[in-house]
Each structure stands twice: as C-alpha cells, then as structure tokens.
Design a protein that fits this description.
Blueprint lengths: L2 H4 L16 H8 L5 E2 L11 H10 L12 H11 L6 E4 L1 H13 L5 E6 L3 H9 L3 E6 L7 H6 L5 E7 L11 H10 L5 E5 L24 E6 L12 E5 L1 H10 L7 H10 L3 H24 L11 E5 L7 H7 L2 E2 L1 E2 L8 E5 L3 H15 L1
Parallel strand pairs: 1-10, 3-4, 3-5, 5-6, 6-7
Antiparallel strand pairs: 2-8, 7-8, 9-12, 11-12
Helix pairs in contact: 3-10, 4-10, 5-6, 5-9, 11-13
C-alpha cells in the first residue's frame, strides 16, 4: 500500500481544471513574438494606477503576515456598498469562497443545484466534498427559474447562479431573481455569483444587495479579478447575512488574502475613472465583436459580460488551435460545455481587430 491507495475514492475520477495555455507557452511552442491572450476574461485595460502604486508601497512590508481580517479593505468596501462590515467575507478569489460554502454547509450526499454548462468551480468543489451535483440544462444560454427551483428537494443545500453567466454572458432579470428567492426554502442558500456585474448595462439586471435584509439565505459573490484588473492577486468577496459570514469564517484559513492584494483592492475601490474607462472599452469592444462575428456567420450570443460566446463549427474546424498558431489565445468551448463554440474575451480595439482579422483569414 502507498499514498495512492489511501486517497479518497471520491476524488480519483475528478476532472482537473485546465486553464489553457499561457503567453510564454504559446511563444515557445509556435515561435511567435507577439501573443494576444483573450481566453481568461481579464481586463485588457489593466489595473488601476492607484492599485499599482499601493502595491509598490506595500512591497516593503511583505515580510509581515497580512491582516487576516482585511480591516482596511473591509472598511472601504463596506462604505462603498452601504453594508455593515460584518456582512463581508474575503477570499483568495471567489473560488475560495465557493470552497468555504461547501465546507461549511454540505455533508456528503447533500444536493447542489446549478446550470449546465456552468462555472467549473461550482461542481469541482462540490464533487470534492462528496455533494450530489444536480445539473439543470440552460435554456437559450440562460437559467430558467422554474426549472432551477423544480430541481430543489429536501437534500438541497444551495442553488448556484452566475449572472452574468460564465460561459454564456447571459443574465437573470430582477423578476427571475425574485422568483428564485421567493421559491427557495429558507434553509437553501442562493449563491448569486456576480463576478461580472460591473460590466452589465441591462436595466433589468437586479440590484441584489438590498435583498439581503429580507433573505438571509442569499449570498452575493463578487470579485476584484475582472473589471478591477487584479486577477493576478486573487481577491474575491461575499456579501451575506452576518450569521452566514460567521459560519464561513469558521472554515476560512487565516491570512488567506495576501498583503499586496489587500492594498491593491482597497486602492482600486477609489478609482472610479478606471472603472468607467474599463466599461467604455468593453462596451465598444462588445459592439464591434458582435457585429463582425455576426457578419462572419458565427452567431455570437448576446452578452452582458466582458466575453462573448460564439459558434464556429458550421464554418470551420479546430478554430482555437488555428488561432493559437497565429499567437491568439482563446477559450475552446469544448472545455466549457459548448463544443463547436469559442469564448472570446473582449480586448482592446487593436486586439479585437486582430482576432477578427485572423478569424476571417481562417474561414476564408
């Protein structure tokens, strides 16, 4: 007997998350000098200069452990959102907070309801703790409230909804949000993942945080990885009932958000100009990509996020691999539950033009 024999049976067949190729990998493998990465929904504008400056100042203290309570970041975010500090929980990205939800509220066999396809952290963590994953197929690339609620039973502990949804970019409206909240038993948590919410311009998108007063089983997830441009530092947060936060704090590892990340996130909250520029670049890019992909017959899905899902397999084969040869990294939809599709991050105008030019050349 060795370590392989004592590993838990439940994890032996778990799929391993694949983040795709990195810029340096593409340069080495394909011999290209310039690489455009449009695969991971990062902000092409980059981080706020205020965040960069805060990191530079914090570097001198990196021999010290970070503040485990994220006190300064908690104070600033509490003021920005208009919520009590005790409603906030911080994690090493929202992925860690999803882990904490499963650790705190799930026993083996408990049910987790989610869309299909969906963000992989929901089912990977659920499978790791032995939860029973209940998939509800998306309809028209989005969630359907009645079908989601219909999958809830006495074993269900949480319902997971990404809005805007990854990988499709669709949203749930205020009416749909209210139907799910009203239809859930009070002992079932609604995990409302708003990682891309700052990009949304649809007036039907719900303002979720005020509902926390009426629904203590609501947990709202947000992140500094997307519009704030801090994906490399990993800062996510939850806004929830203080009693839910208390349970999550009990399973949270100490010092989980590093010192540089806390400094950058706190500073980024003060830079409204950076957010507005990021929104503007994304809005212009979405419009351009939608028009061009539609012109090329690639059927883009209308999106409220900073990425776009589109179909290509009716026009060409192996598009992601062929784009890699040209130094352009995109996300193959096969890894996201949509074979024959590509998920493309909205880039700068120059990046968007380059990828459309490359796709047009491949198709023609």
């Amino acid at each position: 007997m060795d370590f392989r024999d004592i590993a838990r049976e439940e994890i032996k067949d778990l799929p391993v998350y694949s983040p795709g190729m990195d810029i340096d990998d593409v340069k080495r493998r394909y011999g290209v000098e310039e690489v455009i990465k449009l695969a991971s929904n990062e902000n092409p504008v980059g981080p706020s200069p205020l965040a960069v400056g805060a990191v530079h100042r914090a570097v001198a203290d990196m021999s010290l452990y970070p503040d485990s309570s994220c006190a300064e970041l908690r104070r600033r975010l509490s003021e920005k959102l208009g919520v009590e500090p005790e409603r906030l929980l911080f994690g090493n990205g929202t992925d860690e907070i999803i882990d904490l939800i499963f650790l705190a509220f799930f026993n083996p066999g408990d049910g987790a309801v989610m869309g299909d396809p969906t963000f992989s952290s929901y089912f990977l963590t659920g499978m790791t703790v032995g939860a029973r994953i209940v998939y509800v197929p998306l309809r028209d690339f989005g969630h359907h409230p009645e079908e989601m609620l219909g999958a809830v039973d006495e074993s269900t502990r949480a319902l997971f909804v990404g809005t805007p949804h990854n990988p499709t970019g669709t949203i749930c409206t205020t009416a749909e949000f209210e139907r799910m909240l009203a239809g859930l038993p009070p002992e079932v948590i609604l995990v409302w993942d708003e990682a891309y919410c700052e990009y949304v311009d649809d007036p039907e998108y719900p303002q979720s945080i005020p509902y926390l007063e009426r629904y203590p089983n609501l947990v709202v997830l947000r992140t500094f990885s997307k519009i704030y441009g801090l994906a490399g530092l990993r800062v996510g947060y939850a806004v929830a009932d203080p009693q839910v936060v208390d349970m999550l704090e009990r399973v949270r590892p100490p010092f989980n958000v590093n010192r540089l990340a806390q400094a950058a996130a706190a500073a980024a909250l003060e830079d409204s100009a950076h957010l507005e520029k990021s929104r503007e670049v994304n809005a212009l890019g979405k419009r351009y990509l939608a028009e061009e992909l539609d012109r090329l017959g690639m059927r883009p899905v209308p999106t409220q996020a900073n990425f776009m899902l589109f179909r290509y397999d009716h026009l060409t084969g192996n598009l992601a691999a062929r784009l890699l040869e040209k130094g352009i990294i995109v996300r193959d939809g096969a890894a996201l539950g949509y074979p024959g599709y590509i998920r493309l991050t909205v880039g700068t105008p120059e990046q968007n033009q380059a990828v459309i030019g490359a796709i047009e050349e491949i198709v023609s």
